[in-house]
Amino acid sequence: MAQGVLSFPLTSFHDDGALDPDGFRTHVAAQIATAPGAVFPACGTGEFFSLDEDEYRQVVTIAVEEAAGRLPVVAGVGYGWAQAVRFARIAEEAGADALLVLPHYLVAAPQDGLVAQLEQIAARTRLPLIAYQRGQVAFTATSLRRIAALPTVIGVKDGHSDLDRLQRLTLAAPEGFLFFNGAATAEIQARAYATVGVPAYSSAVHAFAPEIANAFFGALRDGDDKTVERLLRDFYVPLVELRDRVPGYAVSLVKAAARLRGRPVGPVRAPLTDPSPADLADLTALLTVGLDLVGAAL
């Protein structure tokens, strides 16, 4: 998973909000065809929070079928540990390879509680777990050692971008423990994360423009600073500025960009909202710029 961009596919919905399994199959197959390091269905970008258990089963099953053993399938689970375990069992039955444990719902919790959450999930599934620290979840080095001692906890995805804390965690972790950059629009901070030993990252851009995401990843890997900085300056930074206009655009803009490229992903579900006409026009122009930079077509 550390050898390529991590794909977080969008969950396809019809215009009336119903799940579109065929659209999702087409979308996730196209994502897998671009050879990401792993595919993460039903996570944040995939609107896990809006899926019921039957829809979740369909999404994970389709991702497993399309991956066909060629790359890891890591399904999202979340809420309190009891509900997370229900999703974990569905993912296990569907053939997922591992689970991404999304931040628990609503309440703040002490470090002992954060550890206990993972202990409870780990005790009830055989699948490897990656803990996502973001929002109200932030591990100390002591807690990191405790969760890393659990046999099936294999890594942490970080969304805080606190490099001081993250460096402490990487130094506290056992050899082979995985770390991923899970910041929103992770490419913006990819070089900084790499300096503390975390080169792998998830890419929302990969969901609509794998050409751009893979070009950036390759340039970063090869030390091509000129290309990295041109993509950051002319595409990624303007994308972040557009994303920050409205809460929820971290998903809504990604879906809108995918639709602009003919991907059958449909609208977002409430409480998210699709971009305004003005923001959609700005997104279209920016997407054209990004694709032109890497020689791809809209």
UniProtKB/TrEMBL annotation:
Superkingdom per UniProt: Bacteria
InterPro entries: Aldolase_TIM, DapA-like, Dehydro-deoxyglucarate_dehyd
Catalysed reactions listed for this entry: 5-dehydro-4-deoxy-D-glucarate + H(+) = 2,5-dioxopentanoate + CO2 + H2O
SUPFAM superfamilies: Aldolase
Coiled-coil segments: none
Translocase recorded as keyword: no
Keywords in alphabetical order: Lyase
Presence of keyword Magnesium: no
Pfam families the UniProt entry points to: DHDPS
Pathway: Carbohydrate acid metabolism; D-glucarate degradation; 2,5-dioxopentanoate from D-glucarate: step 2/2
E.C. number(s) listed in UniProt: 4.2.1.41
Family membership: Belongs to the DapA family.
Database matches in NCBIfam families: PRK03620.1
Protein name: Probable 5-dehydro-4-deoxyglucarate dehydratase
Organism: Streptomyces sp. 900129855
